[in-house]
Amino acid sequence: MTMCQRCNYPRLFRSKGVTPTPNRLMLMELVGDSPAPLSPQKIYETLNRTHRLNRVTVYRILDLLVEKNLLERLSSGDRSFRYGLAPNANHRPHPHFFCRRCGAMECLASDSLDLDTRALERRYPGAIEKVEVRVDGICGNCVGAKGKMG
Amino acid sequence: MTMCQRCNYPRLFRSKGVTPTPNRLMLMELVGDSPAPLSPQKIYETLNRTHRLNRVTVYRILDLLVEKNLLERLSSGDRSFRYGLAPNANHRPHPHFFCRRCGAMECLASDSLDLDTRALERRYPGAIEKVEVRVDGICGNCVGAKGKMG
DNA sequence: ACTTCCATGCAAATAAGTTGCATACTGTCC
DNA sequence: GGACAGTATGCAACTTATTTGCATGGAAGT
User: What is the CATH number of domain A9-146?
Assistant: First the structure.
């Protein structure tokens, strides 16, 4: 749902003035292929399994890609941020669900919530850059695990 | 806008099984009177100016009051949470604005965004407990300060 | 090769929040 | 009115997420 079907990342990176290093491409592919936004920790662990790299490098790449608007940083219900593909032409902004039981975050369909921001955009005296919608609760898996399906 | 016009907090606390200690009441009044949600750090500094108390106590009271549904915990665009009055009969849920320049968070009118969650509630397989909407950008003050008004 | 720039690593620092344990307070029972 | 049980608070130490400073290493141009 979130995934970007095999964009040409090296080209995309260059178009934004980002040198397409192996680490950056790996990270971008990992996040791009993930059905849900990922924490830096998770990204670090996953990448590090196959290609040794430093935790700090992960943070630096994330900052860079967010700044270049290739990734977006989402706040979760816990203490760490999550990162997903930034919205673009092929990838609509969408809300996310955070499960307070298992800590997993998932993407919701972009039309699952109907949000009209026009009134606010007209009246708000500052500059609006993004609207983040997060739904909190217990996810389907966790509800099932605890609940009726013994 | 956020403020609860002088609720009877001791009574409210007891009704939820929360012992109304001086620290807890002070904290609740501070948050209740604030026009915007506050960080633990800010709460600590403010309370500590007049009545010595420990930072840990602040965290513990916040956890307790969130658990009892008297306060709500909001994620901001930065690394700390913010706390405000929990929505209730006199206090509608509302979105918040986070300014990435000055770090301030403000409450927006509860009708400033039109959000329809019914479709999601019908279809989502888990349990939805709350929906958090945060608008990010540059607030009115900061836009003005940097911009036209030299 | 020589320089320049930037990507990465490594160690240490910081910030926010949490835990363990000791002391002090609240309200209840004799 | 003191002993008791159960919290509430303080204090120090810890953990986790993230950031910074500084040094090395490698690619690209000259």
Answer: 1.10.10.10
